[in-house]
């Protein structure tokens, strides 16, 4: 994740989490919280976990362990004047 100046932001590790969707959703959520704390107004989140990107873009996720995190990400992204999330394949 990087800010509007293409500066890389710190990565977050989530211990004891077993699925890539949960790990990625938590990392995105933490990145949004960090960007908000830093006072950024324009953020672009990129991820290679397409299911999480689609869930955020649609505002819902079917899996029980990620749904609340996705909702939090949607709410956080809406708090930025220009916040977007996009899929970036490896």
TrEMBL record:
Q: What is the lineage of its organism?
A: Eukaryota, Viridiplantae, Streptophyta, Embryophyta, Tracheophyta
Check the record and name the InterPro entries matching this protein: RNase_H-like, RNase_H-like_dom_plant, RNaseH_domain, RNaseH_sf
Give GO MF terms, alphabetically.
nucleic acid binding; RNA-DNA hybrid ribonuclease activity
RNase H type-1 domain residues: 14-90
- The protein in question is named RNase H type-1 domain-containing protein
């Amino acid at each position: 994740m990087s800010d509007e100046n293409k500066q890389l932001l710190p990565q977050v590790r989530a211990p004891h989490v077993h699925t890539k969707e949960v790990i990625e959703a938590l990392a995105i959520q933490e990145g949004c919280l960090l960007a908000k704390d830093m006072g950024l107004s324009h953020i672009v989140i990129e991820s290679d976990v397409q299911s999480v990107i689609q869930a955020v873009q649609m505002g819902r996720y079917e899996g029980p362990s990620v749904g609340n995190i996705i909702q939090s990400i949607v709410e956080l992204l809406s708090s930025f004047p220009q916040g977007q999330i996009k899929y970036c394949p490896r």
